[in-house]
Write a structure and sequence with these properties.
This protein is mainly alpha-helical and 121 residues long. The protein contains four helices and no strands.
């Protein structure tokens, strides 16, 4: 979130932390959505280069770390807006699924055995 978008109010009033937090979480969620759209376009719909694979791995790793951090704060019982924890939890599930799909792939030999078992000749 750009610092110029943050309205802290006048010196006489306290900043609306709850509103600022909600805005930040929604912007973070949109960033995750843009990453997942890039992933679909560049990793699933195209043949990614080694650089794109590494960019994906590094980007996804940091998105996961930071989303977990934000989620841990929003999941605190004293956090005022439970919907933000749910939004972050949904994004976390999407990002974790992406990690498993791309970076914890089943070995080819194991995949062949599974296919043979499920679809016998």
């Amino acid at each position: 979130m750009a610092a110029s978008n943050v309205e802290l109010g006048s010196d006489a009033t306290a900043p609306d932390i709850e509103h600022l937090t909600a805005d930040y979480v929604h912007q973070w969620s949109m960033l995750c959505g843009r990453f997942l759209a890039w992933e679909r376009r560049e990793m699933l719909m195209a043949e990614p280069s080694a650089k794109k694979k590494e960019d994906h791995r590094q980007g996804l790793k940091w998105l996961l770390r930071l989303t977990r951090l934000l989620h841990s704060m929003a999941a605190d019982p004293e956090f005022p807006d439970r919907s933000l924890a749910e939004e972050l939890e949904g994004r976390l599930l999407q990002l974790e699924s992406s990690w498993r799909m791309f970076h914890e792939a089943m070995p080819a030999e194991q995949a062949e055995k599974l296919l043979a078992k499920v679809f016998p000749q």
